[in-house]
Amino acid sequence: MNASEVPGTNGVPGRFSTMTKTGQVSKSVKPWPRKAAVFGASGGIGRALCEALAEGGCETIYAGSRSGEGPEGGAIRPFAFDLASEASIAAAADVMRSDPPEWIICATGVLTLPDGTGPERTYKRLDPAVMAQVFALNTIGPAMVAKHMLALMPRGEPSLFAALSARVGSISDNRLGGWHSYRASKSALNMLLKNFALEMARTHPESVIVGLHPGTVDSALSAPFQTGLPDGQLTPPRQAAKNLLAVLAGLGPEQSGRVFDFRGAEVEP
Ligand SMILES: NC(=O)c1ccc[n+]([C@@H]2O[C@H](COP(=O)([O-])OP(=O)(O)OC[C@H]3O[C@@H](n4cnc5c(N)ncnc54)[C@H](OP(=O)(O)O)[C@@H]3O)[C@@H](O)[C@H]2O)c1
Question: Which of 138, 155, 160, 217 could be bridged to 185 by S-S, CB 3.0 to 4.6 A?
Fold first, then answer.
């Protein structure tokens, strides 16, 4: 699967192949969403996701950010929320209750905290307050988004919830160590996504809940860590968004609970 396969670029629902558990491809049709919600629409990847969804013909895009400002366009419905406030997430979900989105993407996350504290390179730098803040934003916040948004999903109809995770949250793939709180917060997020997928499958057999690794994307989050990257390894947000949407469009319930990278390959737990 590649970025050129982003569906619905002419506003028509796309036809896609779905990967099976073994990575083979089975035929299925997943309609491009008519309505979507992006939490984190002010971020590098979140903004690009909103724009790509709009370009693909999505009619309504609920675009959430702390400021309530995000990308502009006729399809965009801005809303405000803060990951640190469950009440604000509940209020946002309430606005969408009568006309819920088919796709929900949580594109929020932090690597460096707002006060400038960066990821720890050694256990000696661990600070419980910093760890708590990273977990609050990268794990608990998206979990609260899931709590309030999954409750809107109709039974018996396809629905999709994706959260931006990171390959560094994979325990089996961890060869370098470091970035303790960030890595662990993403591992914990992946576990919650798996749990939600198992739970939702009992009542919503057509639901898909996944984590996504976007690659190294040129954004405020990655900016302090871009030096020394091999040529071609920094993906523009627009390309990253197209990659991720193409991956999402190819997923079915049999892939729920797993984490996929921007090429559609599974990131092993
Ligand atoms: N960029 C990469 O190379 C890369 C690689 C792997 C994984 N990821 C993951 O991709 C996701 C998006 O990253 P990005 O590169 O787009 O980063 P970004 O440009 O820094 O965007 C981060 C987003 O998170 C939001 N956010 C932070 N704190 C919040 C809070 N308290 N309440 C509500 N929203 C809050 C930001 O909103 P404000 O504008 O209000 O701060 C912003 O919309 C993250 O989960 C990241 O871990 C990125």
Answer: 138
Task: Please give the share of the chain, as a percent, with pLDDT higher than 90.
Answer: 86
CB-defined site of ligand 1, < 6 Å: 40, 42-46, 65-66, 82-84, 107-110, 137, 164, 166, 213-214, 216-217, 219-222
Structural contact between residues 226 and 234, judged by C-beta atoms closer than 8 angstroms: yes
Q: Which residue pairs, CB below 8 angstroms and at least 24 apart, start in 84-87?
A: 84/136, 84/137, 84/141, 86/144, 86/147, 86/148
**Within a domain: 52:** yes
Q: Single out the residue of 38, 91, 34 nearest to residue 62, CA to CA.
A: 38
Closest to 64 in 3D by CA, of 108, 99, 101: 108
The number of folded domains in the chain is 1
Q: Which of 117, 187, 221, 244 to mutate to test the pocket of ligand 1 (most atoms within 8 A of CB)?
A: 221
Average pLDDT, integer, range 209-224: 98
Write the residue with the smallest CA distance to atom 18 of ligand 1.
Answer: 43
Ligand 1 closest atom vs CA 182: 47
Place of tokens 């909103």: 50
Which 3 state secondary structure label does DSSP give 145?
helix
The CATH number of whichever domain residue 226 belongs to comes to 3.40.50.720
pLDDT at 1 over 60: no
For the chain, where are the E strands, in sequence order?
Answer: 16-19, 25-28, 35-39, 60-65, 76-80, 103-106, 159-164, 207-213, 259-261
Which ligand 1 atom is at minimum distance from the Cα of 111?
47
Q: Is residue 85 part of a domain?
A: yes
Tell how far the Cα of 258 is from the centroid of ligand 1, in angstroms: 20
**The pTM of the whole model exceeds 0.85:** yes
Residue 21 lies in a domain: no
